[in-house]
Amino acid sequence: MDTYGPSDDSSVVVELQSLLLGAERVEEFLADVARRAAGTVEHAQSCGLTVQATVRSRFLGASSDEFGRRMDHVQYAVDDGPCLHCLRTATPVQVDDITNDQRWPAFGLRGQHEGAGSSLSIPLIIHEKAVGVLNLYSRTAYGLDATDRQRALQFADQAAGAVGLALRLAEREERERHLETALTSRTTIDQAIGVLMGRAGISATEAFDALRVRSQHTNTKLRDVAAGILAELNGGEE
Amino acid sequence: MAYSARGQPILGKWPVPRRRSHPHHRIPTYALQAGLAHSDLSIEQLWFRYIALGGVCSMRRLAWEVYDDDLPAIEHDRIAQALNEYFLDRDVTQPVAYSEELDDT
After folding, report:
1. Which residues of chain A have pLDDT under 50?
2. Element (H or E) spanning A155, and its range?
3. Per-residue pLDDT tens for A100-150?
4. Within 10 Å of residue B16's Cβ, how many Cβ atoms?
5. CA distance A83 to A167
6. Which residues of chain B lie closer than 8 angstroms to A182, CB-CB?
7. Distance from the Cα of residue A188 to its chain's centroid
8. With a CB-CB cutoff of 8 Å, which residues 209-228 of chain A face chain B?
9. ipTM computed for the complex
10. Which residues on chain A are in Cβ contact (under 8 Å) with B49?
11. Does the CB of A124 have a partner CB in chain B at under 8 Å?
């Protein structure tokens, strides 16, 4: 792994902007940020990045390597631990000895099993709210010192803006995907309504109701009922 | 072909629910509100599902209408269908009532 020394704020921000522009997807960018963070903090063996995605209760994660990924997922699985506490309270959390720390017993046991010794979770804050968390992991207890903490805090400050922007872009992309799916489905339903209106001499409202009742009786989505009508129609014309 | 004759075969196989009133008769919205509260859907997510079913209201209007006292029957049923399809994805069968079950006029 590349090791990065301390660098001035502007170079890190410019580098993160460049990573953001070059990334195809937000997960790819977050993984780049995690790798960059792991390289910046000298004693961190691994870094995970957790962000709060738009859908309720869903986390989006990326990590510098498999160890970081497993450590983050241990916490998602028990819905607790220093990362999620940090995200929810927007305050940094340092765990010097994961095996003997009593604050998150479920995380401690699993973390020990994964081979983790200590961790540091730093919030990425925009407008006084945590949009994500930078998690740094060491395989040894007391493995992360005051200098590591200082560098991690600096890096989190510099990365917060770019991560926030990445999330906004991802939200917009997700909306576009949902809208595209909705409009495709709507076209199918409109066509099927037209078929029923033409064949049965009924109104659009009655045709919609007919599709809806069929959907209810068969536990099938309305668009699938509509697609079935169109498929039969196309089959009949062949 | 399944629908070769005009009219009766389709209506026989695809029954239209008997409304006791006009489709624009207003239906109370409590079933929609309960369904939305039991789901994990945001108004935006519900709106995408509603638009997919032919809905024409803006997202803001939809948010207003769901929490209004009552709605035209056809709009009520479109939103109920959107919610029921969400529950169908989670193997829960039709918890939200349609207008013909709620219309007490």
Report:
1. 1-6, 55-57, 238
2. helix A146-200
3. 999 998 888 899 999 999 999 999 999 888 989 999 999 999 999 999 999
4. 20
5. 18
6. 48-49, 51-52
7. 31
8. 209-216, 219, 221-223
9. 0.82
10. 182
11. no
